[in-house]
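ugh ok so i messed up the first submission bc i forgot one of the chains. this is the corrected input, ALL of the components this time, i swear. 531 residues overall. if the numbers dont match what u have on ur side tell me asap before i send this to the collaborators (the ones from the other lab, u know who)
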Amino acid sequence: MITFDHVSKQYPGAEVGAVNDLTIEIPSGEIVIFVGPSGCGKTTSLKMINRLIEPTSGTVAIDGSNTRDANVNQLRRSIGYVIQQVGLFPHQTVAENVATVPRLTGWDHKRIAARVNELLDLVGLPPAQYAKRLPAELSGGERQRVGVARALAIDPNILLMDEPFGAIDPIARVRLQNELLRLQKIVRKTIVFVTHDIDEAVKLGDRVALMSQGGHVEQYSPPAELLARPATPFVSSFLGDARLVRRLALIGLRSIALSPTNGARVPSTNVDASGSLRDALDAVLRSSDGRAQVVDGDRILGVVDADVIRAASV
Amino acid sequence: MGTFRYIVDNWDTLGPQVATHLLIVGISVAVAAVAGLAFGIVSARSERIGTVVLAVTSTLITIPSFALFGLLSIWVGLANPPVIIGLILYALLPVTRNTRAGILAVDPAVVEAARGMGMNRTQVLARVELPLAVPVILAGLRQATVMIVAIATVGATVGANDLGQPILSAIGRSGGTIDAVLAGIIPVALIGILADTVLAGVQRSLSRGRVAVAATA
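and heres the new structure output, hopefully the right one now
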Protein backbone atom coordinates (compact mmCIF):
# COMPACT_ATOMS: atom_id res chain seq x y z
CA MET A 1 0.00 0.00 0.00
CA ILE A 2 1.22 3.47 -0.88
CA THR A 3 0.07 6.31 1.35
CA PHE A 4 0.28 10.01 0.60
CA ASP A 5 -0.18 11.97 3.82
CA HIS A 6 -0.70 15.72 3.33
CA VAL A 7 1.93 15.81 0.60
CA SER A 8 2.79 19.11 -1.07
CA LYS A 9 5.32 20.12 -3.67
CA GLN A 10 6.17 23.76 -4.07
CA TYR A 11 8.81 24.77 -6.61
CA PRO A 12 10.92 27.76 -5.64
CA GLY A 13 9.66 30.90 -7.36
CA ALA A 14 6.33 29.37 -8.36
CA GLU A 15 3.27 31.15 -7.03
CA VAL A 16 1.06 28.11 -6.62
CA GLY A 17 2.19 24.69 -5.53
CA ALA A 18 2.45 21.92 -8.10
CA VAL A 19 0.77 19.62 -5.58
CA ASN A 20 -1.09 20.91 -2.54
CA ASP A 21 -1.91 18.76 0.44
CA LEU A 22 -2.46 15.46 -1.34
CA THR A 23 -3.75 12.65 0.84
CA ILE A 24 -4.58 9.39 -0.86
CA GLU A 25 -4.20 5.66 -0.29
CA ILE A 26 -3.25 3.25 -3.05
CA PRO A 27 -4.20 -0.32 -2.11
CA SER A 28 -1.83 -3.18 -2.87
CA GLY A 29 -2.42 -5.22 -6.00
CA GLU A 30 -4.64 -2.63 -7.67
CA ILE A 31 -4.26 -0.40 -10.68
CA VAL A 32 -4.83 3.17 -9.57
CA ILE A 33 -5.02 5.82 -12.25
CA PHE A 34 -4.06 9.46 -11.74
CA VAL A 35 -5.98 11.26 -14.45
CA GLY A 36 -6.51 14.95 -15.11
CA PRO A 37 -5.72 17.82 -17.43
CA SER A 38 -2.12 18.82 -18.31
CA GLY A 39 -0.30 20.45 -15.44
CA CYS A 40 -2.67 19.18 -12.75
CA GLY A 41 0.20 17.64 -10.80
CA LYS A 42 -0.45 13.98 -11.58
CA THR A 43 3.08 13.27 -12.84
CA THR A 44 4.61 15.25 -9.98
CA SER A 45 2.60 13.12 -7.57
CA LEU A 46 3.78 9.93 -9.26
CA LYS A 47 7.43 10.97 -9.13
CA MET A 48 7.18 11.69 -5.43
CA ILE A 49 6.70 7.94 -4.92
CA ASN A 50 10.16 7.02 -6.23
CA ARG A 51 11.60 10.35 -5.11
CA LEU A 52 12.58 11.60 -8.53
CA ILE A 53 10.79 14.57 -7.01
CA GLU A 54 11.10 15.17 -3.27
CA PRO A 55 7.99 16.50 -1.51
CA THR A 56 8.28 19.91 0.12
CA SER A 57 6.13 18.70 3.00
CA GLY A 58 4.11 15.68 4.01
CA THR A 59 5.10 12.04 3.76
CA VAL A 60 4.83 9.29 1.20
CA ALA A 61 4.93 5.86 2.79
CA ILE A 62 5.13 2.39 1.29
CA ASP A 63 3.63 -0.31 3.50
CA GLY A 64 3.90 2.07 6.40
CA SER A 65 7.54 3.08 6.07
CA ASN A 66 8.39 6.63 5.07
CA THR A 67 10.17 6.64 1.68
CA ARG A 68 12.39 9.45 2.92
CA ASP A 69 14.06 7.05 5.35
CA ALA A 70 15.10 4.64 2.59
CA ASN A 71 18.28 4.82 0.53
CA VAL A 72 17.04 6.60 -2.58
CA ASN A 73 18.71 4.28 -5.11
CA GLN A 74 17.65 1.16 -3.24
CA LEU A 75 14.11 2.56 -3.12
CA ARG A 76 14.07 3.18 -6.88
CA ARG A 77 15.42 -0.28 -7.66
CA SER A 78 12.54 -1.74 -5.69
CA ILE A 79 9.96 0.18 -7.76
CA GLY A 80 9.39 -0.44 -11.47
CA TYR A 81 9.34 2.77 -13.52
CA VAL A 82 7.94 3.17 -17.04
CA ILE A 83 7.83 6.52 -18.85
CA GLN A 84 6.21 7.77 -22.03
CA GLN A 85 9.50 8.25 -23.90
CA VAL A 86 10.49 4.73 -22.71
CA GLY A 87 14.10 5.84 -22.24
CA LEU A 88 15.71 2.60 -23.39
CA PHE A 89 19.51 2.74 -23.50
CA PRO A 90 20.16 3.05 -27.24
CA HIS A 91 23.65 1.52 -27.03
CA GLN A 92 22.43 -1.65 -25.36
CA THR A 93 20.52 -4.62 -26.73
CA VAL A 94 17.00 -5.44 -25.62
CA ALA A 95 18.40 -8.12 -23.29
CA GLU A 96 20.97 -5.74 -21.78
CA ASN A 97 18.30 -3.12 -21.23
CA VAL A 98 16.04 -5.57 -19.44
CA ALA A 99 19.02 -6.73 -17.34
CA THR A 100 19.72 -3.22 -15.99
CA VAL A 101 18.30 -3.49 -12.49
CA PRO A 102 19.31 -7.15 -11.91
CA ARG A 103 22.87 -6.09 -12.78
CA LEU A 104 22.74 -3.11 -10.44
CA THR A 105 21.46 -5.46 -7.76
CA GLY A 106 24.28 -7.90 -8.39
CA TRP A 107 22.54 -10.97 -9.73
CA ASP A 108 24.77 -13.60 -11.35
CA HIS A 109 24.85 -14.08 -15.11
CA LYS A 110 22.85 -17.28 -15.25
CA ARG A 111 20.01 -15.89 -13.18
CA ILE A 112 19.92 -12.69 -15.23
CA ALA A 113 19.82 -14.57 -18.55
CA ALA A 114 16.99 -16.79 -17.37
CA ARG A 115 15.02 -13.85 -16.01
CA VAL A 116 15.48 -11.80 -19.20
CA ASN A 117 14.11 -14.65 -21.32
CA GLU A 118 11.19 -15.14 -18.99
CA LEU A 119 10.33 -11.42 -19.09
CA LEU A 120 10.60 -11.09 -22.85
CA ASP A 121 8.21 -14.02 -23.21
CA LEU A 122 5.89 -12.40 -20.70
CA VAL A 123 5.63 -9.17 -22.70
CA GLY A 124 5.22 -11.01 -25.99
CA LEU A 125 8.68 -10.52 -27.49
CA PRO A 126 10.17 -13.98 -28.20
CA PRO A 127 13.77 -13.81 -26.88
CA ALA A 128 15.22 -15.74 -29.82
CA GLN A 129 13.98 -12.99 -32.09
CA TYR A 130 14.34 -9.90 -29.92
CA ALA A 131 17.03 -10.34 -27.24
CA LYS A 132 19.93 -9.23 -29.44
CA ARG A 133 18.21 -6.31 -31.15
CA LEU A 134 18.94 -2.66 -30.47
CA PRO A 135 16.14 -0.26 -29.50
CA ALA A 136 16.51 1.55 -32.83
CA GLU A 137 15.42 -1.65 -34.57
CA LEU A 138 12.07 -1.83 -32.74
CA SER A 139 8.67 -0.24 -33.30
CA GLY A 140 7.26 2.19 -30.72
CA GLY A 141 5.00 -0.50 -29.27
CA GLU A 142 7.82 -3.05 -29.06
CA ARG A 143 10.03 -0.51 -27.32
CA GLN A 144 7.44 0.08 -24.64
CA ARG A 145 7.07 -3.68 -24.14
CA VAL A 146 10.80 -3.74 -23.46
CA GLY A 147 10.29 -0.77 -21.13
CA VAL A 148 7.68 -2.74 -19.18
CA ALA A 149 9.88 -5.87 -19.10
CA ARG A 150 12.78 -3.75 -17.82
CA ALA A 151 10.60 -2.29 -15.08
CA LEU A 152 9.47 -5.76 -13.96
CA ALA A 153 12.99 -7.20 -13.96
CA ILE A 154 13.49 -7.86 -10.26
CA ASP A 155 9.80 -8.40 -9.66
CA PRO A 156 9.09 -5.17 -7.76
CA ASN A 157 5.82 -4.91 -5.85
CA ILE A 158 5.12 -1.48 -7.24
CA LEU A 159 5.05 -0.30 -10.82
CA LEU A 160 4.89 3.40 -11.70
CA MET A 161 3.74 4.17 -15.25
CA ASP A 162 3.86 7.74 -16.52
CA GLU A 163 1.68 7.99 -19.64
CA PRO A 164 3.34 4.82 -20.92
CA PHE A 165 1.16 4.46 -24.02
CA GLY A 166 0.79 8.17 -24.78
CA ALA A 167 3.15 8.23 -27.74
CA ILE A 168 1.94 5.01 -29.34
CA ASP A 169 -0.45 4.75 -32.28
CA PRO A 170 -4.09 3.99 -31.33
CA ILE A 171 -4.17 0.39 -32.55
CA ALA A 172 -0.98 -0.63 -30.78
CA ARG A 173 -2.12 1.34 -27.72
CA VAL A 174 -5.31 -0.71 -27.35
CA ARG A 175 -3.28 -3.88 -27.69
CA LEU A 176 -0.81 -2.74 -25.03
CA GLN A 177 -3.66 -1.76 -22.70
CA ASN A 178 -5.20 -5.21 -23.07
CA GLU A 179 -1.84 -6.82 -22.45
CA LEU A 180 -1.29 -4.74 -19.33
CA LEU A 181 -4.59 -6.06 -17.98
CA ARG A 182 -3.63 -9.62 -18.93
CA LEU A 183 -0.20 -9.12 -17.33
CA GLN A 184 -1.71 -7.68 -14.17
CA LYS A 185 -3.82 -10.83 -13.75
CA ILE A 186 -0.53 -12.75 -13.60
CA VAL A 187 1.74 -10.39 -11.66
CA ARG A 188 -0.73 -8.59 -9.36
CA LYS A 189 1.38 -5.47 -8.84
CA THR A 190 0.42 -2.24 -7.19
CA ILE A 191 0.33 -0.04 -10.27
CA VAL A 192 0.12 3.73 -10.28
CA PHE A 193 -0.64 4.84 -13.80
CA VAL A 194 -0.72 8.44 -15.00
CA THR A 195 -2.72 9.44 -18.06
CA HIS A 196 -4.72 12.39 -19.38
CA ASP A 197 -6.97 10.06 -21.36
CA ILE A 198 -10.20 9.36 -19.47
CA ASP A 199 -11.02 6.36 -21.68
CA GLU A 200 -7.69 4.79 -20.81
CA ALA A 201 -8.27 5.59 -17.13
CA VAL A 202 -11.70 4.00 -17.12
CA LYS A 203 -10.54 0.95 -19.02
CA LEU A 204 -7.46 0.14 -16.96
CA GLY A 205 -8.19 1.42 -13.49
CA ASP A 206 -9.47 -0.51 -10.50
CA ARG A 207 -9.77 2.97 -9.07
CA VAL A 208 -9.44 6.35 -10.69
CA ALA A 209 -8.23 9.51 -8.96
CA LEU A 210 -9.42 12.41 -11.04
CA MET A 211 -7.26 15.44 -10.30
CA SER A 212 -7.60 19.16 -10.91
CA GLN A 213 -4.93 21.86 -10.60
CA GLY A 214 -2.50 21.38 -7.72
CA GLY A 215 -3.02 17.63 -7.47
CA HIS A 216 -6.44 18.22 -5.90
CA VAL A 217 -8.35 14.93 -5.96
CA GLU A 218 -11.85 15.75 -7.19
CA GLN A 219 -13.03 12.16 -7.00
CA TYR A 220 -11.38 8.86 -6.13
CA SER A 221 -13.53 5.87 -6.95
CA PRO A 222 -13.91 2.81 -9.17
CA PRO A 223 -14.47 3.85 -12.80
CA ALA A 224 -18.11 2.72 -13.00
CA GLU A 225 -18.89 4.83 -9.94
CA LEU A 226 -17.00 7.81 -11.37
CA LEU A 227 -18.99 7.64 -14.59
CA ALA A 228 -22.32 7.00 -12.92
CA ARG A 229 -22.05 9.61 -10.18
CA PRO A 230 -19.59 12.43 -10.86
CA ALA A 231 -18.87 14.05 -7.48
CA THR A 232 -18.17 17.60 -8.66
CA PRO A 233 -18.90 19.83 -11.67
CA PHE A 234 -15.20 19.54 -12.56
CA VAL A 235 -15.55 15.77 -12.80
CA SER A 236 -18.67 16.03 -14.97
CA SER A 237 -17.02 18.44 -17.34
CA PHE A 238 -13.83 16.36 -17.54
CA LEU A 239 -15.83 13.22 -18.27
CA GLY A 240 -17.80 15.02 -20.97
CA ASP A 241 -21.24 14.25 -22.35
CA ALA A 242 -20.57 10.68 -23.35
CA ARG A 243 -19.91 9.42 -19.82
CA LEU A 244 -22.88 7.05 -19.77
CA VAL A 245 -21.95 5.60 -23.14
CA ARG A 246 -18.40 5.13 -21.81
CA ARG A 247 -19.80 3.42 -18.77
CA LEU A 248 -21.53 0.80 -20.93
CA ALA A 249 -18.12 -0.67 -21.67
CA LEU A 250 -17.69 -1.41 -17.95
CA ILE A 251 -20.86 -3.45 -17.55
CA GLY A 252 -20.62 -7.13 -18.46
CA LEU A 253 -23.56 -8.83 -20.16
CA ARG A 254 -23.51 -11.69 -17.66
CA SER A 255 -24.30 -9.27 -14.86
CA ILE A 256 -27.52 -7.77 -16.22
CA ALA A 257 -31.16 -8.79 -16.55
CA LEU A 258 -31.99 -9.83 -20.13
CA SER A 259 -35.40 -10.16 -21.74
CA PRO A 260 -36.51 -13.75 -22.20
CA THR A 261 -36.23 -15.23 -25.64
CA ASN A 262 -39.47 -15.28 -27.58
CA GLY A 263 -39.50 -18.24 -29.97
CA ALA A 264 -41.47 -16.44 -32.65
CA ARG A 265 -39.19 -13.42 -32.98
CA VAL A 266 -35.54 -14.42 -33.24
CA PRO A 267 -33.29 -11.32 -33.19
CA SER A 268 -31.27 -10.77 -36.34
CA THR A 269 -27.91 -10.21 -34.61
CA ASN A 270 -25.92 -12.00 -31.92
CA VAL A 271 -23.63 -10.69 -29.24
CA ASP A 272 -21.28 -12.83 -27.16
CA ALA A 273 -22.03 -13.05 -23.46
CA SER A 274 -18.42 -12.25 -22.61
CA GLY A 275 -18.92 -8.77 -24.07
CA SER A 276 -20.08 -5.56 -22.44
CA LEU A 277 -23.24 -3.49 -22.68
CA ARG A 278 -21.37 -1.38 -25.21
CA ASP A 279 -20.97 -4.41 -27.48
CA ALA A 280 -24.68 -5.13 -26.97
CA LEU A 281 -25.58 -1.56 -27.94
CA ASP A 282 -23.48 -1.92 -31.06
CA ALA A 283 -25.27 -5.18 -31.95
CA VAL A 284 -28.65 -3.59 -31.32
CA LEU A 285 -27.79 -0.65 -33.60
CA ARG A 286 -26.59 -3.02 -36.31
CA SER A 287 -29.75 -5.16 -36.12
CA SER A 288 -32.76 -4.68 -38.36
CA ASP A 289 -35.25 -4.94 -35.50
CA GLY A 290 -33.51 -3.20 -32.61
CA ARG A 291 -32.82 -6.45 -30.76
CA ALA A 292 -29.82 -8.72 -30.28
CA GLN A 293 -29.46 -12.24 -28.95
CA VAL A 294 -26.93 -12.81 -26.14
CA VAL A 295 -25.18 -16.10 -26.78
CA ASP A 296 -22.71 -18.15 -24.81
CA GLY A 297 -21.37 -20.66 -27.29
CA ASP A 298 -24.45 -22.61 -28.40
CA ARG A 299 -26.57 -21.43 -25.52
CA ILE A 300 -28.91 -18.51 -25.88
CA LEU A 301 -29.05 -16.50 -22.66
CA GLY A 302 -31.64 -13.95 -23.61
CA VAL A 303 -32.37 -10.88 -25.63
CA VAL A 304 -31.11 -7.34 -25.31
CA ASP A 305 -32.75 -4.20 -26.68
CA ALA A 306 -32.81 -0.47 -25.94
CA ASP A 307 -34.98 -0.90 -22.85
CA VAL A 308 -32.73 -3.60 -21.42
CA ILE A 309 -29.66 -1.43 -21.97
CA ARG A 310 -31.28 1.57 -20.37
CA ALA A 311 -32.47 -0.41 -17.40
CA ALA A 312 -29.04 -1.90 -16.86
CA SER A 313 -27.07 1.29 -17.31
CA VAL A 314 -28.60 3.43 -14.58
CA MET B 1 61.92 11.19 -56.71
CA GLY B 2 64.45 13.61 -55.31
CA THR B 3 62.59 13.87 -52.04
CA PHE B 4 62.36 10.11 -51.67
CA ARG B 5 66.11 9.81 -52.22
CA TYR B 6 66.68 12.58 -49.70
CA ILE B 7 64.58 10.75 -47.10
CA VAL B 8 66.41 7.47 -47.66
CA ASP B 9 69.84 9.14 -47.60
CA ASN B 10 69.05 11.02 -44.41
CA TRP B 11 67.19 8.23 -42.60
CA ASP B 12 69.83 8.13 -39.86
CA THR B 13 68.76 11.64 -38.89
CA LEU B 14 65.08 11.39 -39.87
CA GLY B 15 64.35 8.08 -38.15
CA PRO B 16 64.89 9.42 -34.61
CA GLN B 17 63.00 12.56 -35.57
CA VAL B 18 59.96 10.48 -36.57
CA ALA B 19 60.23 8.58 -33.29
CA THR B 20 60.46 11.78 -31.24
CA HIS B 21 57.52 13.26 -33.15
CA LEU B 22 55.38 10.20 -32.40
CA LEU B 23 56.45 10.24 -28.75
CA ILE B 24 55.64 13.93 -28.27
CA VAL B 25 52.26 13.61 -29.99
CA GLY B 26 51.44 10.33 -28.24
CA ILE B 27 52.09 11.70 -24.74
CA SER B 28 50.24 14.94 -25.49
CA VAL B 29 47.17 13.17 -26.89
CA ALA B 30 47.05 10.72 -23.98
CA VAL B 31 47.28 13.41 -21.31
CA ALA B 32 44.87 15.74 -23.13
CA ALA B 33 42.38 12.88 -23.54
CA VAL B 34 42.31 12.17 -19.82
CA ALA B 35 42.32 15.83 -18.75
CA GLY B 36 39.85 16.87 -21.46
CA LEU B 37 37.50 14.07 -20.46
CA ALA B 38 37.60 15.22 -16.84
CA PHE B 39 37.14 18.88 -17.77
CA GLY B 40 34.32 17.95 -20.15
CA ILE B 41 32.47 15.95 -17.50
CA VAL B 42 32.76 18.76 -14.97
CA SER B 43 31.69 21.31 -17.60
CA ALA B 44 28.62 19.25 -18.46
CA ARG B 45 27.63 19.05 -14.79
CA SER B 46 27.92 22.77 -14.06
CA GLU B 47 26.96 25.51 -16.45
CA ARG B 48 29.19 28.01 -14.64
CA ILE B 49 32.32 25.85 -14.60
CA GLY B 50 31.62 24.91 -18.21
CA THR B 51 31.65 28.54 -19.31
CA VAL B 52 34.96 29.22 -17.56
CA VAL B 53 36.66 26.05 -18.80
CA LEU B 54 35.59 26.65 -22.40
CA ALA B 55 36.66 30.32 -22.25
CA VAL B 56 40.12 29.37 -20.96
CA THR B 57 40.70 26.52 -23.39
CA SER B 58 39.40 28.62 -26.30
CA THR B 59 41.85 31.37 -25.39
CA LEU B 60 44.77 28.95 -25.11
CA ILE B 61 44.21 27.74 -28.65
CA THR B 62 44.54 31.29 -30.02
CA ILE B 63 48.12 31.74 -28.69
CA PRO B 64 50.61 31.28 -31.54
CA SER B 65 52.44 27.99 -31.03
CA PHE B 66 55.81 29.63 -31.61
CA ALA B 67 55.13 32.04 -28.73
CA LEU B 68 53.60 29.42 -26.43
CA PHE B 69 56.52 27.00 -26.82
CA GLY B 70 58.97 29.85 -26.31
CA LEU B 71 57.19 31.03 -23.21
CA LEU B 72 57.00 27.52 -21.74
CA SER B 73 60.68 26.89 -22.42
CA ILE B 74 61.51 29.69 -19.99
CA TRP B 75 60.05 27.58 -17.17
CA VAL B 76 60.64 23.99 -18.22
CA GLY B 77 63.72 24.31 -20.37
CA LEU B 78 64.30 23.47 -24.01
CA ALA B 79 63.60 20.37 -26.13
CA ASN B 80 60.55 18.11 -25.59
CA PRO B 81 58.94 19.30 -22.31
CA PRO B 82 57.70 22.74 -23.45
CA VAL B 83 56.38 21.18 -26.66
CA ILE B 84 54.49 18.42 -24.86
CA ILE B 85 52.93 20.88 -22.42
CA GLY B 86 51.98 23.27 -25.21
CA LEU B 87 50.42 20.54 -27.32
CA ILE B 88 48.42 19.28 -24.34
CA LEU B 89 47.02 22.80 -23.90
CA TYR B 90 46.06 22.98 -27.57
CA ALA B 91 44.41 19.56 -27.56
CA LEU B 92 42.32 20.35 -24.49
CA LEU B 93 39.72 22.45 -26.26
CA PRO B 94 38.44 19.91 -28.82
CA VAL B 95 38.35 17.08 -26.28
CA THR B 96 36.74 19.14 -23.50
CA ARG B 97 34.20 20.77 -25.79
CA ASN B 98 33.16 17.50 -27.40
CA THR B 99 32.96 15.60 -24.12
CA ARG B 100 30.66 18.27 -22.74
CA ALA B 101 28.56 18.39 -25.93
CA GLY B 102 28.35 14.60 -26.08
CA ILE B 103 27.11 14.30 -22.52
CA LEU B 104 24.62 17.15 -22.91
CA ALA B 105 23.28 15.56 -26.12
CA VAL B 106 22.15 12.41 -24.31
CA ASP B 107 18.34 12.17 -24.38
CA PRO B 108 17.04 13.42 -20.99
CA ALA B 109 14.45 10.62 -21.01
CA VAL B 110 17.26 8.05 -21.06
CA VAL B 111 18.92 9.73 -18.08
CA GLU B 112 15.60 9.92 -16.25
CA ALA B 113 14.97 6.22 -16.87
CA ALA B 114 18.45 5.43 -15.55
CA ARG B 115 17.92 7.48 -12.39
CA GLY B 116 14.41 6.07 -11.98
CA MET B 117 15.87 2.56 -11.98
CA GLY B 118 18.17 3.46 -9.13
CA MET B 119 21.51 4.29 -10.74
CA ASN B 120 23.57 6.81 -8.79
CA ARG B 121 25.30 9.74 -10.50
CA THR B 122 28.50 7.83 -11.17
CA GLN B 123 26.64 4.86 -12.61
CA VAL B 124 24.58 7.10 -14.87
CA LEU B 125 27.80 8.70 -16.10
CA ALA B 126 29.76 5.48 -16.57
CA ARG B 127 27.01 3.25 -17.93
CA VAL B 128 24.85 5.66 -19.86
CA GLU B 129 26.19 9.15 -20.53
CA LEU B 130 29.82 8.40 -21.42
CA PRO B 131 29.09 5.33 -23.57
CA LEU B 132 26.52 7.37 -25.49
CA ALA B 133 28.91 10.32 -25.82
CA VAL B 134 31.80 8.18 -27.08
CA PRO B 135 31.38 8.97 -30.80
CA VAL B 136 31.35 12.72 -30.11
CA ILE B 137 34.29 12.49 -27.70
CA LEU B 138 36.30 10.50 -30.25
CA ALA B 139 35.50 13.08 -32.92
CA GLY B 140 37.08 15.70 -30.66
CA LEU B 141 40.08 13.52 -29.99
CA ARG B 142 40.54 12.98 -33.73
CA GLN B 143 40.42 16.68 -34.38
CA ALA B 144 42.93 17.33 -31.57
CA THR B 145 45.30 14.63 -32.77
CA VAL B 146 45.42 15.73 -36.37
CA MET B 147 45.92 19.32 -35.26
CA ILE B 148 48.81 18.68 -32.90
CA VAL B 149 50.57 16.27 -35.25
CA ALA B 150 51.06 19.32 -37.48
CA ILE B 151 51.73 21.88 -34.73
CA ALA B 152 54.39 19.63 -33.17
CA THR B 153 56.75 20.61 -36.02
CA VAL B 154 56.98 24.10 -34.50
CA GLY B 155 58.56 22.41 -31.49
CA ALA B 156 61.80 22.32 -33.46
CA THR B 157 62.18 26.02 -32.74
CA VAL B 158 62.66 25.28 -29.03
CA GLY B 159 64.95 22.37 -29.71
CA ALA B 160 62.68 19.34 -29.92
CA ASN B 161 64.33 16.87 -32.29
CA ASP B 162 61.12 16.11 -34.18
CA LEU B 163 59.96 16.39 -37.79
CA GLY B 164 60.12 20.16 -37.54
CA GLN B 165 63.92 19.88 -37.70
CA PRO B 166 64.30 19.10 -41.43
CA ILE B 167 61.86 21.93 -42.19
CA LEU B 168 63.64 24.35 -39.88
CA SER B 169 67.04 23.39 -41.23
CA ALA B 170 65.92 24.25 -44.76
CA ILE B 171 64.54 27.68 -43.94
CA GLY B 172 66.90 30.46 -45.00
CA ARG B 173 69.11 28.17 -47.04
CA SER B 174 69.44 28.25 -50.81
CA GLY B 175 70.18 24.66 -51.87
CA GLY B 176 68.08 21.47 -51.38
CA THR B 177 65.41 23.29 -49.43
CA ILE B 178 62.37 21.72 -51.10
CA ASP B 179 63.52 18.17 -50.40
CA ALA B 180 64.30 18.94 -46.77
CA VAL B 181 60.96 20.65 -46.20
CA LEU B 182 59.10 17.77 -47.87
CA ALA B 183 61.11 15.29 -45.80
CA GLY B 184 59.47 16.88 -42.78
CA ILE B 185 56.03 17.43 -44.26
CA ILE B 186 55.43 14.03 -45.85
CA PRO B 187 55.97 11.94 -42.69
CA VAL B 188 53.90 14.46 -40.72
CA ALA B 189 51.07 14.15 -43.23
CA LEU B 190 51.30 10.35 -43.18
CA ILE B 191 51.19 10.27 -39.38
CA GLY B 192 48.21 12.63 -39.42
CA ILE B 193 46.30 10.61 -41.99
CA LEU B 194 47.11 7.34 -40.23
CA ALA B 195 46.00 8.65 -36.83
CA ASP B 196 42.83 10.07 -38.35
CA THR B 197 42.00 6.81 -40.11
CA VAL B 198 42.59 4.67 -37.05
CA LEU B 199 40.53 6.95 -34.80
CA ALA B 200 37.77 7.16 -37.41
CA GLY B 201 37.65 3.36 -37.43
CA VAL B 202 37.45 3.20 -33.65
CA GLN B 203 34.77 5.87 -33.69
CA ARG B 204 32.68 3.92 -36.20
CA SER B 205 32.99 0.63 -34.38
CA LEU B 206 31.97 2.25 -31.09
CA SER B 207 28.97 4.02 -32.59
CA ARG B 208 26.74 0.96 -32.47
CA GLY B 209 23.20 2.07 -31.65
CA ARG B 210 24.25 5.63 -30.95
CA VAL B 211 22.74 6.76 -34.21
CA ALA B 212 21.46 10.15 -33.13
CA VAL B 213 24.64 11.40 -31.52
CA ALA B 214 26.96 9.75 -34.02
CA ALA B 215 25.31 11.65 -36.83
CA THR B 216 26.26 14.97 -35.29
CA ALA B 217 29.89 14.01 -34.82
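quick check: The two ends of chain A are 32 Å apart (CA to CA). that seems consistent at least. The first helix of chain A runs from residue 42 to 47.
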